[in-house]
Amino acid sequence: MSRWLKPLVTLALYALVFYWTDARAIAGELGRARLEPIVAGVLLYMAGQAVSAWKWQILLHPVHLEVPYLRVLAFYFTGMFFNLFLPTIVGGDAVKAVLLARETGAPARATMSVFMERNVGLCALLIVAVGAAELAPPVELFGMSLRVLPWLLAAGYAAANVALMSPVVYRAVDRAVAATPLARVRHRADSLYQAIVPYKRAPGRILAAVGLSFIFQGIVIAVVFLNARALALDVPLAAVAVFVPLVSLAGMVPVSVNGLGVREALYILLFGRVGVPVETAVSLALLYLAVTSMASLPGGLAYLMQPARARELTSERTATDS
What we know:
Elements: H1 2-19, H2 23-31, H3 35-60, H4 69-83, H5 91-104, H6 107-133, E1 140-141, E2 144-145, H7 149-165, H8 167-178, H9 186-196, H10 203-230, H11 237-251, H12 262-271, H13 278-296, H14 298-304, H15 308-321
Antiparallel strand pairs: 1-2
Helix pairs in contact: 2-13, 3-4, 3-6, 3-10, 3-13, 4-5, 4-14, 5-6, 5-15, 6-7, 6-9, 6-10, 6-11, 8-9, 10-11, 10-13, 11-12, 12-13
């Protein structure tokens, strides 16, 4: 039943979105979209994935994993391809971890490198959201100013990372787990914790990875801005810069497949605050989905080029995660 829960939630969210909108108007807007900004967005997003793969390779060094960049790039695009249909936008991370673990024979370090790649990306995303919120038009969501929301999320992120890196917190959690039926997985948790320790001694690589994450977040914002231009939509860049990170954060919540439905609902709520009509907001969300999907398709080819055993392992893992 759990395997079908997220697809059902996705369908329910889409049903609600299209119940309150005019599907013909949305189709008309998409049909009139200019092709040049869309193509530019696809190419730009693919370049962003290449930047993110470089970031991931930088984060392999502290845990002593040496993998050629083109191999890392293939793994990254494969993960993006699986993100198209796995739960939440981090579903493909499991695929990347499996592929890298098979390549290196170090599952704990491979998994932690994938986690850190996502972790530093989230750091940059939050910083961009905090900065952009100060420039965006005054907007409230659920009675809370959007200038406050990114700060609250950033504070939670900082607290979680301090706890994650603290040996005191780890030992306390380990003692608590030892008294539960989960005690049998303590050795796995310990191997993961030992794999994160080297990152505390590599601040230079962490800062470099955060810098590359800023570039990627800027690319995502630029892609949405290009999509808005494709729809002849005049939206302030500052508004796009604050809304896009918030939508990305919401997409990580494991309630739907690849954040579908959640994204469209938030586009309606957020872009509607700066005067964007409902149908246009949904069109913008769907166009972003189309652009990122097209940019992720090369990952399918990269997956097919993997050895047969790697494909089997990945299929087993994705079936478990679905």
